Amino acid sequence: MSDLSAFLITKRWPAKHPELLQLYSLPTPNGVKVSIMLEEIGLPYEVHLVDFGKDDQKSPEFLSLNPNGKIPAILDPNGPGSRPLPLFESGAILQYLAEKTGKLLPEDAARRYRTIQWVHFQMGGIGPMFGQVGFFHKFAGKDYEDKRPLERYVDESKRLLGVMETHLTGRQWFMDDDYTIADISMLGWVRNLVGFYGAGDLVAFSRFKSVGAWLERGLARPAVQRGLNIPKRP
């Protein structure tokens, strides 16, 4: 049986099945990337809820795994060289799981790097910009008298959606007919923007027909539906 006792995080979140990959997460747009991925590839795992309401992400145990204090993070008892691998940053985790299982990342080198570039596009653009729209439109930022920050992030989100629209026109997925980690990285964020954040009208989402069709296809996948609700919120 795998021994994970050397990892402080297991003191707060004991592993009932230490032989399985351990996922520490919350069903946010970043968190569901990894739960969707795990559901898609069928890799057995054990999930642990990191409750922001209890500041779990700031605990010494969680910070021992991710010093940045963000979800998701994983602890794979069967990492490279058959040694445990702690890993944080959702994009890095997606790439690791794809390479570990040989799934959802093209084998051809050129297509592989083109897939990874779209994951970086999400990490550097879609996530930060859509998240700022959420803050200034739905959360505390909505009460700010100065609306210039909201306008800035709305305009940038529209631009990013335009990039997605141009690329997806005539394509089923970001890599043509191949559903990959590029799609997984973005589905939760676009869903959140028009759903939970309620910013669909704000960014004129109805104009982006190809993006809307792509989102609908993605959300229809059973593994995506499961992953969107893992772990269950408290």
UniProtKB/TrEMBL annotation:
<feature type="domain" description="GST C-terminal">
    <location>
        <begin position="108"/>
        <end position="234"/>
    </location>
</feature>
<dbReference type="InterPro" id="IPR040079">
    <property type="entry name" value="Glutathione_S-Trfase"/>
</dbReference>
<feature type="domain" description="GST N-terminal">
    <location>
        <begin position="18"/>
        <end position="105"/>
    </location>
</feature>
<dbReference type="Pfam" id="PF02798">
    <property type="entry name" value="GST_N"/>
</dbReference>
<dbReference type="InterPro" id="IPR004045">
    <property type="entry name" value="Glutathione_S-Trfase_N"/>
</dbReference>
<dbReference type="InterPro" id="IPR004046">
    <property type="entry name" value="GST_C"/>
</dbReference>
<dbReference type="Pfam" id="PF00043">
    <property type="entry name" value="GST_C"/>
</dbReference>
<dbReference type="InterPro" id="IPR036249">
    <property type="entry name" value="Thioredoxin-like_sf"/>
</dbReference>
<dbReference type="InterPro" id="IPR010987">
    <property type="entry name" value="Glutathione-S-Trfase_C-like"/>
</dbReference>
<keyword id="KW-0808">Transferase</keyword>
<protein>
    <submittedName>
        <fullName>Glutathione S-transferase</fullName>
    </submittedName>
</protein>
<comment type="similarity">
    <text>Belongs to the GST superfamily.</text>
</comment>
<dbReference type="GO" id="GO:0016740">
    <property type="term" value="F:transferase activity"/>
</dbReference>
<dbReference type="InterPro" id="IPR036282">
    <property type="entry name" value="Glutathione-S-Trfase_C_sf"/>
</dbReference>
